[in-house]
Design brief:
Elements (H helix, E strand, L loop, with lengths): L3 E3 L2 E3 L3 E4 L4 H14 L2 E4 L5 H11 L4 E3 L4 H12 L5 E5 L10 H10 L2 E4 L8 E4 L7 E5 L4 H11 L6 E6 L5 H13 L4 E4 L2 E4 L8 E4 L4 H14 L3 E4 L12 H9 L1 E6 L2 E6 L9 E4 L7 H10 L4 E4 L11 H11 L2 E5 L4 E6 L7 E2 L5 H7 L8 E3 L12 H7 L1 E3 L2
Parallel strand pairs: 3-14, 4-13, 5-6, 9-10, 17-18, 21-22
Antiparallel strand pairs: 1-22, 2-23, 6-8, 7-8, 10-12, 11-12, 14-16, 15-16, 18-20, 19-20
Helix pairs in contact: 1-2, 1-3, 1-6, 2-3, 3-5, 4-5, 5-6, 7-8, 7-9, 9-11
The protein binds shikimate-3-phosphate and phosphoenolpyruvate (PEP).
The site of shikimate-3-phosphate (S3P) has 12 residues, from helix 5.
Length: about 400
């Protein structure tokens, strides 16, 4: 575990970078490829989470350890539940054993699956005895993690009568459900999402498809932040105007609040600081649809001394760490005092930042990457630099390319 010191830096003008494929799209396509076999994938994510999922799918071991990868844990639960005549023990890191899986397990049990909790009820590790699932209608609480629902949707086409899922309560992280639905459609599986009912039809005569994965918008957010604080143009390759990723919302966010315009040309986006930018008085937003870019947003706003009040965040507490507490602790070091509640974070006041800043990362890749652009305001050290490998192993290399130390 080593720390990284980032000296006070400025942005090099007009750098162009290539970020690897979306982690969320990659993890879906790997599961779908294994289930339906008709997909050729290009530009797969190089994230550790994707590699873990890929090796789990290629493994015939009884015990599968997916470490810290929440999407992999949830997606593989349904996958192994339908692998007839195979028993799998699905486990993960200590943190994974605290991340809930109960609504997914209960939905699978209602479909006829055989799953046991091996330690704490409601949490991994799981013993999954693969079965043919006989039922096809379930209800699920949609407010804890959309990953449960995406996981069920992906096996839906394999069930004899397809699958009907009724979503109960407020739907969290909805764009990720739409991403799953769109990818099912792309590979030829009929599905509908209307009001709170999702229907997946049995897969029939699927033609082979080549899918090129778009680069990762959540990873792009760190460059939006750098551009907002450092005010120089940065370009990023392999992005689409009609993205499947909800985090493409970052473009609108940084245009509305931080004066960063996004221009698309030949699948390259250029992040361009607008000259006449006046800071908003306050950023008030519900970010329930885009939980993964909340840390970036709060770190940028704090660096630029723009007060914020962000709601819709109840799922942040059950991610890689309790992201609300982690944010509160670390934002204070850069001079932003916040109040947090069950599902919100808001600025109370700005104070002088600490002189020597050490950002703790709580085993959370996004804590490291979202604070890194603060070096454009002040030098800082970030703890455990390897933590970024979970989603973006080349982050420090790419980030170094846009910086030059300020003497
Ligand atoms: O389906 C996905 O690929 C994801 C869904 C979101 O999780 P929740 O639905 O648990 O919010 C997101 O935070 C995660 O990084 C990726
Ligand atoms: C929450 C995340 O991932 P996961 O839930 O897949 O661990 C993330 O990448 O921010």
């Amino acid at each position: 575990m080593s720390n990284i010191f980032l000296p006070k830096s400025k942005l090099i003008r007009d750098k162009t970078l290539t970020i690897s494929g979306s982690k969320s799209e990659s993890n879906r396509l790997l599961i779908l490829q294994k289930l339906y076999g008709n997909i050729q994938i290009e530009n797969l994510s190089d994230s550790q989470d994707t590699q873990l999922l890929q090796s789990a799918l290629g493994s015939s071991e009884e015990i599968i350890d997916i470490h810290h990868a929440g999407t992999a844990m949830r997606f593989l639960t349904s996958f192994f539940a339908i692998q007839e005549s195979r028993t799998t023990i699905l486990t993960g890191s200590e943190r994974m054993k605290q991340r809930p899986v109960k609504p997914l397990v209960e939905a699978l049990l209602a479909l006829g699956a055989e799953i046991y909790y091996l330690e704490n009820p409601g949490f991994p590790p799981l013993k999954i005895v693969g079965k043919k699932l006989k039922n096809h209608r379930i209800k699920i609480d949609a407010g804890i993690s959309s990953q449960f629902i995406s996981s069920l949707m992906m096996i839906g086409g394999k069930l004899e009568n397809g699958l009907e899922i009724e979503l109960l309560g407020e739907i969290t992280s909805k764009p990720y459900l739409e991403m799953t639905l769109n990818l099912l459609t792309e590979i030829g599986i009929e599905s509908h999402f209307e009001n709170s009912i999702i229907r997946i039809f049995p897969a029939k005569n699927l033609a082979t498809k080549k899918l090129v994965i778009e680069s990762d918008w959540s990873s792009a957010s760190y460059f939006y932040s750098a551009c907002a604080i450092g005010r120089e143009k940065i370009s990023l390759r392999n992005f689409k105007q009609n993205s499947l990723q909800g985090d493409a919302f970052v473009a609108e966010l940084y245009k509305n609040f931080f004066g960063i315009k996004t221009e698309f040309s030949d699948e390259t986006i250029s992040l361009i600081p607008t000259e006449k930018f006046s800071k908003p008085e306050k950023i008030s937003l519900d970010m329930n649809s885009c939980p993964d870019i909340v840390q970036t947003l709060c770190a940028t706003a704090s660096a630029m001394k723009i007060p914020f009040e962000i709601s819709g965040l109840k799922t942040l507490k059950i991610k890689e760490t309790d992201r609300l507490s982690a944010l509160k602790n670390e934002l204070e070091k850069i001079g932003c005092i916040t109040e947090i509640g069950d599902d919100f974070i808001k600025t109370k006041k700005f104070v002088e930042p600490q002189n020597e800043i050490l950002i703790e990362t709580y085993d959370d890749h996004r804590m490291a990457m979202s604070f890194a652009p603060y070096c454009l305001a002040q030098p800082l050290t970030i703890e455990n630099q390897q933590v970024i490998e979970k989603s973006y192993p080349k982050f420090w290399q790419d980030f170094a390319q846009i910086l030059s130390p300020e003497n």
